[in-house]
Amino acid sequence: MTWEWDETLYAGSAAYYAQGRMRYPPELANALRDELSLDGSARLLDVGCGPGSLTLLLAPLFAEAVGVDADRDMIAEAEREAGRLGIVNVTWVRLRAEELPAGLGTFRVATFAQSFHWMERERVAAAVREMLEPGGAWVHVNATTHEGVVGAEGLPAPKPPRDGIRELVHAYLGDARRAGAGSLPDGPPSGEEDVMLAAGFPSPRRLKVACSGIVERSEDDVVASVFSLSSAAPHLFGGRLAEFETDLRELLRATSPSGRFAERHRDIELVVWRL
């Protein structure tokens, strides 16, 4: 069974995403501000915005931001978080990236954070390129936020047993990585740079955002990090969801009876494609 996009890709995951994923650090916003000379006067398009994690971090750098996602629950979570933070210059739109431009206008910056590989990339690249104003930029945010770096040296609490968690997921769902109603036996597609060059973008500039901070996490946080993944979305477990969560929590308690965990942030790469 191969993967094709469907509405179940992150079904049931939205409520876990904000709790289970590590937040993007302020250094990411600072790096983009300096690289693109952002002064609060431009528009941002965040494609595949999920619950707004990146959109809301970057929104203060723009006059207006638009977050686009195909998942209804993700958009609802983003709206709630924006309200909680009092951020009012963001518009949330539920649609697939393949439906762009959708009358949304032009933008100085378009961002894709952990999302482009889920899309019909050639189609989306061509559409979004036409939505960028002259001198605009497309930014890929290459990050892993559900888990930290390998190694537990210097951590104030045990590191979550990520290898054991993956083995448990495989025991329930099989070895092929699940994605919506299908699977990705070889993982998400690669060749992103070829797609962008073919769409007419010049070679990119790559920026490293060093993230050395430590995140302390509860048992509930780690459980949420698992259910935030498309490959372990709650709907995939069907009638065995409660059984899986029980086994997952037993695994976590065997690692840390106190329920306290810690992980160190992974560095983030920004790939900036300027027109």
Write a short abstract of this structure.
Helix content is 33%, strand content 23%. The protein has 275 residues and is α/β, with parallel strands linked by helices. The chain is globular and about 55 Å long.
Commentary on this structure:
- Helix 4 (72-85) links the parallel strand 2 and strand 3 (90-94).
- Helices cover 33% and strands 23% of the residues.
- It has a 7-stranded mixed β-sheet with strand order 3-2-1-4-5-11-8. The chain has a two-stranded antiparallel ribbon with strand order 6-7.
- The protein is of the alpha/beta class.
- It is globular and about 55 Å long.
- The chain contains 9 helices and 11 strands.
- Helix 1 packs across helix 8 (219-227) and helix 6 (162-173) runs antiparallel to helix 9 (241-255).
Highlighted features:
275 residues, two-stranded antiparallel sheet, 23% strand, 11 strands, seven-stranded mixed beta sheet, alpha/beta
Which secondary structure elements does this structure contain, and how are they paired or packed?
Blueprint: H1 14-20, H2 26-36, E1 43-47, H3 53-58, E2 64-69, H4 72-85, E3 90-94, E4 107-113, H5 121-131, E5 132-142, H6 162-173, E6 177-179, E7 182-184, H7 192-198, E8 205-209, E9 214-218, H8 219-227, H9 241-255, E10 260-264, E11 268-274
Parallel strand pairs: 1-2, 1-4, 2-3, 4-5
Antiparallel strand pairs: 5-11, 6-7, 8-11, 9-10
Helix pairs in contact: 1-8, 6-9
